[in-house]
Structure formats: C-alpha cells, structure tokens
Amino acid sequence: MDQRDLKPVTGPRVWRGEDMAARSGEWTYTLSPSEIAELDAAVATVDAQGLDVLDIRREGFPLPTLGQKLGQIQDDLQHGVGFAMIRGVPVERYNRKQAAIAYFGIGTYLGEAVSQNARGHALGHVYDLGVDATLPLGRGYQTSQKLNFHTDPADIVGLLCLKKAKAGGLSSIVSSGAVFNAMLERRPDLVQVLTETLYRDRRGEIPDGCEPWYRLPVFNFRDGNMTTNYVRSTIEKAQRFEEVPRLTETQREAFALLEEIAADPRMVLSIAFEPGDIQFLNDHYIMHSRTAYQDYEEPEKRRHLLRLWLAADAGPPLADAYYEFMGKTASGRPNGYLMPGVTLTAPLTPEDGGPGDIALRKAATAAE
User: Fold this and answer.
1) What is the pTM of this model?
2) Could you tell me the domains of the chain?
3) What pLDDT is stored for residue 363 in this prediction?
C-alpha cells in the first residue's frame, strides 16, 4: 500500500490509556449477586452432569441476565473500545474444574474456543513453567518475565485470574489504532514498511505441507478496516531459517518506533488482576503486554491465569494473509493453531502441557 493512501484510524477503538483510566466505568463490569447466582447454577448443572469442559454449549449454560451483559460486552469488543473487564467470578470457592466450567461457559457467549498450540489446547494456562522464552519454541506466557506488546492469533483473547502474583504482573494494553495514528503522524514511511510482508516463525507448530514460517504484515486492511498483528519474537526467530529474507535496518527501525509508541505511559492502560477478574480483548484492535512479576514460593499460591482464544462470528473482516498462518473455523473465522488430525482438549493444570512443554523445561534447565 502506498503511504499516500494511508489514513488515520477513527472511532471509539482509538484511545489513550491516560484517558481510558478515568473511564473505567465504561469497560468494567462487576457481577451482581443475582448474576453470580446464575453462574453458580449453570456451573453446578454442568459439574453434576460430568461433562468435559469442551462439551459446554451456550444453550446448556443458561445465563438469563449475565448473558445480556455479555452481549453488550461483545458489542464493546467489536464496535467500542475493544476490551472489557468482568469482575467478581467467585473462583475462591470453585475448584479448578468448576472455575474452568464457569470461564468456558462465559466464553461460549462471545465465541468458539480454538486451539492455542499444536497439541490442541482450547484452555490455556498462563503460568511460570521456567522455560527460556528466547529458545525457538519458547513462549513468554510460560515465564515470569516482562512481555512485549503483541497480539494473539484469535479474534478475542480472554484471561481469567485464579491467583495473582506476589508483586507485579500488571496487564498492559494499548489501542492499535492509536499506535498506528501516532506512527502515521511521525513516520508514514515506516508505517508503510509495516503494511508489507514479514516472515514469522511457526515455532515448531507446522501444519502438513507448510513451511516452518509464514508471511503476514503488521498492519492489514480489508474493506477499509485496519487490523493489527504483531509478535516481534516470531519475526526475529524466523531469521534462523536461511530461506527467509534478512530483516533490514528500516524494518527494525519500524519495529522500534511501534514499540516506543506502544510503551508510552500516555498510551498504555495498566490493569491489576485480582482473583475472579476476566479480561477480554479484541486481538485485532488491541495489543497487550505484561509487566514482570515476583511469584510466591508455595505452588498453591503461584500466579495462575486461564486463557481462552475465541473465534467470533462478529469479528472484523480479515485480509487473506491471515489465513496462511491460521486455518478457518466452519464459520470462516481464524482457528488458532489447530493442526490436522489433532483433537481439542481442555487441560486443567499447566503441567498437562505434553511433550512440548516438557522439552522446553528441560531446555531451560540445561541453559541455566
């Protein structure tokens, strides 16, 4: 796309963190006693039936009042500020499966859970497994380190806090549209660079017949709408492949400017998680990160978030380039990392990561 054709993004999804912090009433939803009672009843019904978390369907998880609120949240995610925080899920009196049931059931009102890794995990765990995120297969969410601003390969990403850190671990989010506009004002030439093809590492999660990398710009356009997909680590890690073009100084200058603007305290909205909080983000309109954290020594107290990636029929139209990386659900939305022949699962503990997580932990130990 010629930089002369690039126009600022407009609408409620363009905001600055310093302004949004004063508008918390617009994006925070605290559950009422009657809504909690609805949730308790739905959880008890599913639990008594002995259903697997993956077998939960919206019609079997009735939330008469809370469901209407979730409809409003969906509208906020797609047409409003692009994020929402639900507070008050009673995780302190739910066991792990009941918390997963409550979370997954709420998620059915917003979209279809999709795979978060090559092993088909539809329920993810953000938990420090001690991996080395600099390794080709390393994932930042399995560490306690600071995460850079990025997006996930889904329409909506959700995080439910089970346990918070001893210190740190703030969720930090930024409007991708606001970052785009600030870049466009300062360096339209670098914005244009980010509308062009970038090679990214699949990090070992390779569908049959595909290369171990894929191609996707940062800023993408369809039907006049701009969406953003940015994961700096996958771009840098793709450089391990000789067949991938070498990154240029101009490209790295563009990455640096994007990250500088995204990290500007005036742009960022930082949110402290409390147990029972659920944060939902529209991945196409919001970039997110996390501050480093200090955890508890006791395993039962350690920071632990459950994660959902949701495919939402209400999501925005996406450029064709997205689907070199991700396949499509039956309704045509991104299906995350689902690999041919892999069955979705919903592990209830972070240790259920399978051989890939075990290998990462061994690699991390060997590197120490």
Assistant:
1) 0.91
2) 8-175+268-367 (3.60.130.10)
3) 37
